[in-house]
């Protein structure tokens, strides 16, 4: 996947491989750099397993000025954050081998001052959908990691995620939704995911002072996998003044004494 924002071509720093059954979070950071108070941040993800590579275009709703492009985005890829002026934009996706074709999907996206967001296309190609998640890039501090879960696997409408020792992480996570954020102790975890008769396992390593999104995806065998993407890391600057807490979840700096108890409480508050 390559990108063409105005005059520069940003480097893709996060890739979700659909065939992976295990992955680590030690990726290059995807945090946005400091910007003016009138700017926001946006990134785009392709989470539709049977949709071929697409070219993504973002244009101003008023006037149609093109502000950036992403070339040949394939299943599981997430772009870096792009700094954008506040306003409403039109996000379009076209088949990568047919740049003049009718978009396979098109949606309006609003960028707000000081906020960061992730827009994803998900679901089967015959019923392709888009949704936008508000991201919280405020880092939790040394020895802690902040994370949420996005359920984008098409083979299960609801999934459960637990540790290898049986501790519940998320229960009945609904297709196309994101949980709130929870602050936990950093370290290595082994996660089991199940739903609708499908299963999968992933090993994740959550580094200290990072923010991550755990994507539940289809793997190449039709089972489930959990793949983490680093949203913000200690080696990258977060937006000046931080951004708002996303997904209606818990506060970013809520203290915890037990990582998984805190995560279970946060996720259960989301899914009722």
From TrEMBL:
Alphabetically ordered keywords of this record: Signal
Any matching Pfam family:
DUF4397
Please list which residues make up the signal peptide. Answer: 1-34
Residues of the DUF4397 domain: 41-161, 166-238
The answer to keyword Protein biosynthesis applying to this record is no
Per the record, the coiled-coil ranges are none
Q: Is the keyword Signal in the record?
A: yes
Q: What is this protein called?
A: Peptidase
Originating species: Curtobacterium luteum
């Amino acid at each position: 996947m390559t990108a063409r924002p105005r005059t520069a071509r940003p480097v893709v720093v996060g890739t979700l491989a659909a065939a992976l059954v295990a992955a680590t979070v030690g990726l290059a950071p995807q945090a946005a750099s400091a910007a003016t108070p009138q700017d926001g941040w946006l990134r785009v993800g392709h989470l539709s397993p049977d949709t071929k590579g697409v070219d993504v275009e973002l244009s101003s709703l008023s006037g149609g000025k093109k502000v950036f492009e992403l070339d040949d985005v394939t299943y599981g890829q997430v772009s870096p954050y792009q700094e954008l002026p506040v306003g409403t934009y039109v996000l379009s996706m076209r088949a990568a081998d047919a740049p003049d074709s009718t978009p396979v999907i098109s949606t309006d996206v609003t960028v707000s001052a000081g906020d960061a967001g992730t827009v994803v296309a998900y679901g089967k190609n015959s019923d392709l959908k888009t949704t936008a998640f508000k991201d919280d890039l405020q880092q939790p501090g040394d020895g802690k990691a902040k994370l949420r879960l996005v359920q984008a696997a098409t083979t299960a409408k609801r999934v459960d995620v637990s540790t290898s020792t049986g501790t519940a992480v998320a229960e009945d996570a609904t297709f196309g939704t994101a949980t709130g954020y929870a602050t936990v102790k950093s370290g290595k975890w082994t996660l089991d995911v199940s739903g609708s008769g499908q299963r999968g396992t992933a090993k994740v390593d959550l580094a200290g002072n990072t923010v991550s999104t755990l994507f539940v995806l289809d793997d190449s065998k039709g089972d489930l996998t959990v793949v983490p993407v680093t949203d913000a890391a200690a080696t990258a600057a977060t937006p000046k003044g931080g951004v708002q807490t996303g997904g209606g979840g818990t506060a970013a700096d809520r203290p915890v004494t037990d990582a998984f108890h805190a995560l279970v409480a946060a996720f259960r508050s989301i899914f009722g």
